[in-house]
Amino acid sequence: MSGLSSEMLELRLMKNQAEPTTSPSSSSFMGNKSSCGEQLLRYGNTEKVLIGGLLIILTVSTICGNLLLVLSVCLVKKLKQPSNYPIVSLAVADLAVAVVVMPFVSITDLIGGHWIFGQLFCNVFIAMDVMCCTASILTLCVISIDRYLGISKPLTYPVRRSGKCMAKVVLIVWLLSASITLPPLFGWAQNVNDDNVCLISQDLGYTVYSTAVAFYIPMCVMLIMYYQIYRAVKISVAKHAITFPPRADDGVSYVSAVLKLQREVKERASITRLLRNERRNMFVFKREQKAATTLGVMVGAFSVCWLPFFLLSTVRPFVCGVRCSCVPLWVERTLLWLGYANSLINPFINTFFNRDLRTTYQNLIYRNFNGKFSASSMQEALKLQNQT
């Protein structure tokens, strides 16, 4: 019996040694991976209808607003100016976000957060998402610099702002945006990609690089440009006053009639010159004030929409690790859609502060909605705008 029991004990020990042991690191990795897949968005039927309707309205409105802006600038001769090239680039980037990115995010959210489009398309989707959103943000930065240079150098900058120059700037913006999407495609930082999850790479170096280029540096530049324009407006307000030359006392007896007449002629000439300068200063002042207001609204909307998402994206890999995200999925999606909403706001801001765009839209809406909506009526409205 003792020999049999010793043989059984040896067999049991050999069996325990043969069984694979799981290390803490591998078990924690599996836990992270399972937690990624288990972060689902659970909606009732009523919630799905409401959220789906809201996402559809947001997507369709973004497409319509940016498409109308692109068509207006491309078809109306008066709007084909180098200063509008960045605005068209911004509208194209926002339009791409609405067409290429928003529908897939909407479907993923409505089915609970599962990625159902495959691993290969996940990398393509992340590349398009990052490139289009980055191009939109960098174009906003270019617009802020353009506004500042137009105010600080009103005589020389409009001459240098040629079509070729602005086209090169737009091309650089898109190439820089594309450069952020390349590292995950060429092995520097792999995206988190399995059967259920499609998440941008959480590599620490890549996260710092991508968020700095795509958000933090452009935001700092925009804030600096807004401050400089605000200072210029403040100085203009301080100088914006007509100072008339003091008149001599008419009751002085030793002033002859001839000298009095000469003095009055000189005073009238100086007043005329002052009024002429005042009209020019008034025009510059209004332009500075409008540029400051426009840029202030753009910077405010940009910061409100994108700052929460990029703060979360920067902190997430340092807190959750590089394998997965420990942030609740509904928080990530809410902040992501808040950033996408900036693509809807941008065309409305540009239209509200651009009189030519407003006039074009009014002609299109008046002719198409007070009559029959057709391609011929749209052509007539555009011809009318070109003539004006």
TrEMBL record:
Gene3D superfamilies for this protein: Rhodopsin 7-helix transmembrane proteins
Any Gene Ontology CC annotation: plasma membrane
Membrane topology: Multi-pass membrane protein
InterPro entries reported for this sequence: 5HT_7_rcpt, 5HT_rcpt, GPCR_Rhodpsn, GPCR_Rhodpsn_7TM
Annotated coiled-coil segments of the chain: none
Keyword Endoplasmic reticulum: no
Domain called G-protein coupled receptors family 1 profile: residue spans: 65-350
Compartments where found: Cell membrane
Reported function: G-protein coupled receptor for 5-hydroxytryptamine (serotonin), a biogenic hormone that functions as a neurotransmitter, a hormone and a mitogen. Ligand binding causes a conformation change that triggers signaling via guanine nucleotide-binding proteins (G proteins) and modulates the activity of downstream effectors. HTR7 is coupled to G(s) G alpha proteins and mediates activation of adenylate cyclase activity.
Stated name of the protein: 5-hydroxytryptamine receptor 7
Species assigned in the record: Hemibagrus wyckioides
